[in-house]
Amino acid sequence: MFEQPIDYVLAAWFVLAAGSTACVAWDQFRNNPEPVVMKWGFILVTLYMGPIGLLLYVMADKEPAPGEHEKFIAPLWKQGVGSTIHCVAGDATGIILAAVITATLGLPMWLDLIVEYATGFAFGLLIFQSLFMKNMMGGTYWENVKKSFMPEFISMNAMMAGMAPAMSLLMMGRDMRAMEPTEPLFWGVMSLGVVAGFAVAYPVNVWMVSRRMKHGLMTRRETSPPAAGKEHGHHGDGPRVTRPQLAAVTMTTGLMLVAGMSFPALFVNMRLSARDVGGAIMPPGMVMGWDTPGDAMRDMAAIRPGQVAFTAPATAQGDVPLSPRVENGVKVFDLEAGVVRWNILPEVRVEGYAFNRQIPGPRLRVVEGDRIRINVTNRLPEPTTVHWHGLVVPNGMDGPADITQRPIQPGETFTYEYTTGQSGTYFYHSHARADRQQAFGLYGALIIDPKAPAPGTTADHEYVVQLQEWLRREGLTYPAMMMEGGLPNYFTINGKAYPATDRVKMKVGETLKLRFIGSNNNFVHPMHVHGGPFTVVARDGVTLAETARFQADTVNVGPGQRYDVIWKALEPGQWLLHCHIPHHTTNNNVEHAGGGGLMMILDVAA
Hints:
The protein is α+β, with helices and mostly antiparallel strands. It is built from 13 helices and 24 strands. A hairpin with a 2-residue loop joins β4 and β5.
């Protein structure tokens, strides 16, 4: 599935790689006088390196005209290309096969690299060199293993010195899909890794060809095949290298290998595996060091678009009252948590976690003393729970995951049941990975009406204000957090950003009860109303005594806090209700129709 711009680039690259491989294969087996092992070497390398492999083939090996192959491939740089091609074809094949297996098994990256090196070396030495080249090199299979060991060891060291850091740093960058063999990005990283490995291995292969330690490109004419070991481009009179030279090159490539294998550990957590990160995509700007745990990465990861089970209409509203059914005197509500696509503005969609396909979740309204039962079904890709914020309930019904209950696993249903002994403004929200799940929309209002309302606490109109912060970057939605790379760029009231927020219509002289709920995770929002002060009548669900009530035009609503205020319309007009942090009244730092984010209009008619 195309989730990021890089996916389109990769699709084009794979098409080019397939076309390039087809061109090389067609020309090799139709026209080029090359030994079969080299034909397959170029085909495999072109499959891995795409157009770069095709370029190398055309520039270094493709016979320009009949009978000219021997002369064309004679230059040392071309012989070095052939030697490197043969090395990469065998070693990279083993490395890629090992990478798929280790990722599937969930091995940590440091062990992954070791297995890849061992498999690539064994594949290159035992199959591509000693087996496939046996007829050309002469001697027995094990004689060829012995003869090929040092050249293959040197070449493999250099190649892995290039591949290891390229693969590790790219796989463990922001987009962890690169660690999953089922993802196109994994194969894109493999391709880039092979290109890097070829580039690093090429100089040492040129040197080994010049010292007659390795063969280069060869010509084989079907009409008059030369004797074994005497094809053009293969030096059959033994290597011309001194022991000090061999020792120096072996030591240097060995150090290169150690550096290439260990360098990524300075920047990324090499103890993690593909299973630890689960294909997570990190937000831009997130700091990920060598000690960043996989849990932190998964916690801050974007919702994968492919996980969305329901796309809400652009006009869909959150905080829609949910009517209970009554069973034996118990008021029963059904909540289902799932992944949705939700419009916070007509042109801006986010992926979110929602109760009953709406953000915020449905409003639950009961009366003080009611017995209520809430059946919560989990359709999320991760466990969840529900906490009843501010309520006194039996401990087993409180909701903290792994503390008062086993988390509700995907596909499971858990039933919460208790009697409401309080009244006022409350809310419910996830209490499993709440910094992630609540940020994505798993919250909703819980209003408990008192049996006998206190004087001065009712109004002509009522409106619930649930606050939230969102992070939408580069087409993906991340949980907004007070961390590097996690700061929000959109803000909503009841799931919508201004100018898509509601307008409350009133008349002069009427009163409005605003129930502010800090359902957000991060900021304290100073909520301000134009057009005159309001009276604070309740805080955190507790009605204030008449002598404790006070007038204000701004209340600081922190995460988890609730304020009930009564505002009277004194003059006609469009009066703003908004957060007094200016950045929070913008959409991605841009104003629309006079503002954005945490703003709504109280529309008062004369």
